[in-house]
Specification:
The chain is of the alpha+beta class and 293 residues long. The chain contains eleven helices and twelve strands. The relative contact order is 0.11.
């Protein structure tokens, strides 16, 4: 979980992510790590100085909730803002939390391509010239304009803006840029994200992710819900019927290439034919069927 800052109508990381167990109330129970301690200390400094404020102060309640550290307490405060139509504020900008599933983050980071020379030069020395080269490279690679704009603002504000310099977890940049390229871009939690969803609603969310055809999301869905992903994958692997589709009757004869519909296996295409047996492709399965009587 991390905090995002709204800059010019778009969202940018204010903190690196703090890991922990989601408690189903929009908060996390913080893992004990050096990064979490550093994030909590810096947020406390901003709060005590008056730079970081909230639409209503519920921090004492979060501190009494046993969330495991200052970082989780501020993230809990920010989540409370979401579900009560409020926000944290820093320098006139809204600040709200975002929640990332660790499995998705790890998959995205693992699938990220190696850094290009243009990206490496920009990260090492983010000046106007390296920014121009990196932005041009992104556009040449077919990446969206939104990502080039994100990189431009990143150069102006730094990776974490007013929060200040802090070492981010490995793969963090790749995950942020992946999120920026998704429909809707990088964005914080909204009130509806905190609901208790039915199994059918979860299946609908998984299907939406699957239909984006993003390899990373598909691996995550297949890993977490293989019983849903398998039939979706089968349907895509199944050849498209051409011409007439015959109803399967065991006493009738068929030829290679014909399409038939089976009462149990659905649509399939005949691949090979023998005297009284044929092999029919149903999705990923090749099944022997009798024919010819």
């Amino acid at each position: 979980m991390l905090l995002l800052e709204e800059v010019g109508g778009r969202w940018f990381p204010l903190t690196p992510p703090v890991t922990g167990r989601y408690d189903s109330y929009g908060r996390i129970e913080q893992d004990d790590s050096e990064l979490a301690t550093a994030v909590g200390s810096r947020l406390t400094e901003l709060w005590d100085s008056g730079a970081l404020t909230a639409d209503f102060d519920d921090l004492e309640h979060q501190r009494n909730s046993g969330l495991g550290g200052e970082a989780a307490e501020f993230l809990g405060l920010a989540s409370g803002m979401v579900f009560n139509n409020g926000a944290l504020h820093l320098g006139g900008n809204r600040v709200l939390p975002a929640l990332w599933l660790d499995l998705v983050s790890r998959e995205v980071a693992a699938a990220a391509p190696p850094q290009s020379d243009a990206e490496r030069a920009f990260l090492e020395n983010p000046d106007p010239s390296t920014l121009a080269v990196f932005s041009d490279w992104l556009l040449e690679q077919g990446r969206p304009v939104a990502l080039a704009d994100h990189v431009r603002v990143q150069r102006q504000r730094g990776v974490f803006g007013a929060f200040g310099a802090i070492e981010s977890p490995r793969g963090f940049d790749a995950v942020v840029r992946w999120a920026v390229e998704q429909p809707g871009g990088l964005k914080p939690l909204v009130a509806d994200d905190g609901g208790q969803f039915s199994g059918e609603e979860e299946r609908s969310f998984a299907r939406q992710a699957w239909d984006r055809k993003d390899p990373t999301l598909r691996r995550v869905v297949a890993s977490m819900r293989p019983q849903w992903a398998a039939p979706w994958q089968d349907a895509e692997l199944r050849p498209r019927a051409q011409g007439t589709i015959r109803r399967y009757v065991a006493t009738e004869r068929y030829t290679a290439g014909e399409w038939l519909t089976h009462p149990r296996f659905g649509q399939g295409q005949v691949e090979t034919v023998e005297a009284r047996k044929m092999f029919v492709r149903f999705g990923r399965d090749l099944r022997p069927l009798a024919h010819g009587g």
